[in-house]
Design goal:
The chain is an alpha/beta fold. It folds into three domains: 171 residues, Immunoglobulins (Immunoglobulin-like); 231 residues, Rossmann fold, CATH 3.40.50; 34 residues, no CATH class. The chain contains twelve helices and 21 strands. The strands form six sheets. A six-stranded mixed β-sheet has the order 18-17-14-19-20-21, with helices on both faces. It has a five-stranded antiparallel β-sheet with strand order 1-10-9-5-6. It has a three-stranded antiparallel β-sheet with strand order 2-4-7, with no helix packed on it. Strand 15 and strand 16 form a beta hairpin. The longest helix is centred in the C-terminal third of the chain and has 26 residues. The relative contact order is 0.10. It holds the Pfam family DUF58.
Length: 448
Amino acid sequence: MKKFFGLFYTNLFLTNRLFAGLAVCGMLYIFRFLFNWLGIIPDVMLGLFLLLVLLDIVLLYHKSQGIFARRHAPERLSNSDDNQLGIYVESIYPFNIKAGIIDEIPVQFQRRDVWFATTLSPRIPKRISYNLRPTKRGEYTFGMIRVFVRSPLALISRRFNFEQAETLPTYPSFLQMRRYELMAISNRLSEYGIKKIRRLGHSMEFEQVKTYVPGDDYRTINWKATARNGNFMVNSYTDEKSQHVYCVIDKSRAMKMPFNGLSLLDYAINASLALSNVALKKEDKAGLITVAEKIGSVVAADRRPVQLNRILEVLYKEKTRYLETNMEALYATIRGILKQRSLVVFFTNYESMFAMQRQLPFLKRIAKFHLLLVVFFENTELTSLSEKPAGDVEHIYVKTIAEKFANDKKLIVKELAKHGIQSILTAPENLTINTINRYLEIKARQSI
């Protein structure tokens, strides 16, 4: 009994309709002092109102569990993507009720507006869906589901608490990875800006001998097969496979800068995961190296089915460091691990020509043995600032400085190209698509 009354008091809430009814009864008592003819009407109204409140309590509390609710969540969340979650709720009351549902989402989202109002019919389940977009990797802890129900009288509200505490890991953007994987397989990447590259000659990876059709390169005619068959036969070639593709991620303080709630490191991690997946689908070998003031994680290039999961687990744990990048250690690691010519995609960030020139000697050494692609970021906020018209002297000064920094980025691209190093200068939100675009272009040009 004591437990029941404890639950009764802690889970009972008064509604606005109850206070409105009490206000009306109070006004009737005030008016009775002015108008004697009201007599016992205020007493009758108050008695009826209290009976309605008692009836409402009985309606809501005659069942110990009048509501069932459960959260439906994925096993893991995808960073920087909209992850769909749902709440399954069902009423066991014999009448229609109005319900307000609160899902205690993780504190990382800093949201206090996750409230869903709905109407529930008896024994008819309903699913409420909503999206969450995490911007940091790590563990996200969900709390209870709280359901506030009201009967048709709506004078009081009863709260039901459902213990469903669970912790979900937030991994690098595997939803984005799957999206680009499907586009690469279906050759729909051109819709997202990936251009077709004209092949220069053909690769040396022989596939089959097939019948000649108009448009085939006549230089590939197989004369021996033609003589045996009586029809023109040509050799067919396919893209070279099992080439090594390494993503090298800079974890230094230069990658801590945030854009749209996501750090540059997270943008690089998402792009590396998507690029590795596309490389594996193209039957190349994908590998990973992370570096800051020292070498972090190293995943040797491979194309086994478990390789992508290995890369995903490593990327999940990576965090930004706050010291300079040790390029000497990076060069020594690449020379020690990469035994054949490989595509090395180096994700980093340069804010000035001086910062790039400090690393240039090591970049030139790496480019001597491998195809090096340096990927760094355009400061979109400075770009938008430089494009705004200046209204006074102060704004002219700010605009000039912004244009100077934006121009330095373009000079870095030219300086790298002067030394035979390919580069990509991209906005953070376009990083993944531009990186995959360049990889497919390199494959088409047979540059590795």
